[in-house]
Design brief:
Layout (H helix, E strand, L loop, with lengths): L10 H4 L3 H9 L3 H11 L21 H13 L5 H15 L9 H9 L2 H19 L10 E10 L4 H6 L14 E9 L5 E8 L4 H6 L10 E4 L6 H6 L6 E5 L13 E4 L2 E7 L10 H6 L3 E13 L2 E9 L9 H25 L9 H14 L16 E2 L6 E2 L11 H6 L1
Parallel strand pairs: 1-4, 4-5
Antiparallel strand pairs: 1-2, 2-3, 5-9, 6-7, 7-8, 8-9, 10-11
Length: 416
């Protein structure tokens, strides 16, 4: 959680929703959480394999270890000893015998927990959330997936520094290892579909390239300006995936050179492939990228946090009748909410700094945090659609997390 020791009055303004949301999550006791997870996750997902390190019948079984790990993530700064005590109370209440009070068995069970099971659990909860929400917030019946990157710190150990080194701007011994991760959201439910991790030197495009298999034919990828460049715009349509992103800052737009005007500040443009091969693709993959493409670029102005900003979107959705400019502007405005939701999630769940001392366990801890943040209430029902707050004077929608001012301009009109 964010702390302001010198200005305690600013705490509620910096993270007004974090304390209330975290309180409701952390009040969930261990037995109710077990019931909720067993309703949500199928038994086969966490079943013990026939062979391998998790095939033996133990007190710390694969499923119980997974459930304890998630409960520990929902209660930050919870020691392993407290988790063992919760298991002792559970076994005593169920009449299943005594459990040793040592933490060694639970710590070893966490090390044995496969990372792949956590990834499958994350994908399963996302599919469940999408099924319960239905076709809400889709664009012309097409699923929209949002890509966004963030970072989190790790404990300063030699193993963590080796795999996830600290930023080069920090002197040795004065910084912390930094892990960069990209999450793929579902715009319909807000659930996290997939996550990719790397050290901070990797570009967002490289992380997204590792998640291309998570994008299915018919999807629409929604992203920031890191993805508004040629490689993404030319490669993903070959897989049947369209892209809507803020245009890369290295490009300039001159509407006098447009191929076809579709409206005010809305036109089709011709982009050509660069001469230098992308470092993300090998030579064979680079040759498959088309030499030229046609993209649609539209520009609008919005007032965010009392400042007027000119925003330029680039997309592969070229039909202005099927995909009007107002719908694309509203789609990008909803992306802002998910970007802030990831930032709010890190604050609420206490994810700014992880606790595990090794990189393998830190990756599992990050996955456990994301699984624990699944958008379901204790009763297994997804939370309702987010309601935009309205400015008390002008009635314009206010973007969540930005109390400084309303969202105005075409973006506000698209959200009305």
């Amino acid at each position: 959680m964010i702390t302001t020791p010198f200005f305690p009055a600013l705490r509620a303004q910096l993270a007004a929703q974090g304390r209330r949301a975290a309180h409701s999550l952390r009040q969930l006791n261990f037995p109710p959480l077990l019931l909720h997870l067993r309703e949500l996750l199928s038994p086969e997902l966490l079943a013990c394999p026939d062979q391998g390190p998790n095939c033996r019948e133990r007190i710390s079984s694969l499923r119980l270890t997974f459930e304890c790990f998630l409960w520990q993530m929902l209660k930050p700064r919870t020691a392993c000893r407290e988790v063992v005590r919760a298991v002792q109370a559970l076994f005593e209440a169920q009449g299943r015998g005594a459990v040793d009070e040592g933490t060694s068995a639970y710590v070893q069970a966490r090390h044995r927990l496969p990372k792949e099971r956590l990834e499958k659990a994350l994908a399963h909860t996302a599919r469940t959330a999408d099924q319960r929400v239905g076709r809400q917030r889709q664009l012309q019946g097409r699923p929209v997936k949002v890509a966004d990157c963030s970072t989190t710190q790790l404990p300063d150990t030699l193993e963590n520094q080796k795999r996830y080194p600290q930023p080069s701007s920090q002197k040795p011994g004065c910084g912390f290892p930094l892990i960069k991760f990209l999450v793929l959201f579902s715009l319909s439910s807000g659930a996290i579909l997939r996550v990719a991790m790397a050290h901070w030197k990797n570009h967002d495009l490289r992380l997204l390239h590792g998640l291309w298999d998570a994008l299915e034919k018919g999807d629409i990828l929604l992203g920031d300006r890191a993805y508004g460049e040629y490689l993404t715009m030319a490669s993903l349509p070959l897989r049947g995936v369209d892209v809507v992103a803020r245009m890369h800052g290295g490009r300039r737009v001159d509407y006098r050179k447009a191929l076809q005007s579709l409206g005010r500040h809305d036109a089709l443009f011709h982009w050509q492939k660069g001469y230098q091969q992308s470092r993300i693709l090998n030579a064979q993959q680079w040759r498959r990228v088309p030499d030229e493409i046609t993209v649609r670029i539209l520009r609008f102005e919005a007032v965010v946090r009392r400042r007027k900003k000119r925003i330029i979107l680039v997309t592969t959705l070229l039909d202005p009748v099927a995909y009007p400019a107002a719908e694309l502007i509203g789609l990008y405005a909803r992306r802002w909410h998910l970007e802030l939701a990831l930032r709010h999630l890190k604050t609420t769940m206490g994810m700014e700094t992880l606790r595990c001392q090794t990189p393998d366990m830190a990756e599992k801890e990050l996955l456990a945090y994301l699984v624990a943040s699944m958008p379901h209430g204790p009763g297994g029902r997804p939370n309702g659609p987010v309601k935009l707050q309205r400015h008390r004077r002008c009635g314009a929608p206010i973007h969540p997390g930005h109390p400084q001012g309303p969202l105005q301009g075409p973006a506000a009109a698209a959200l009305q």
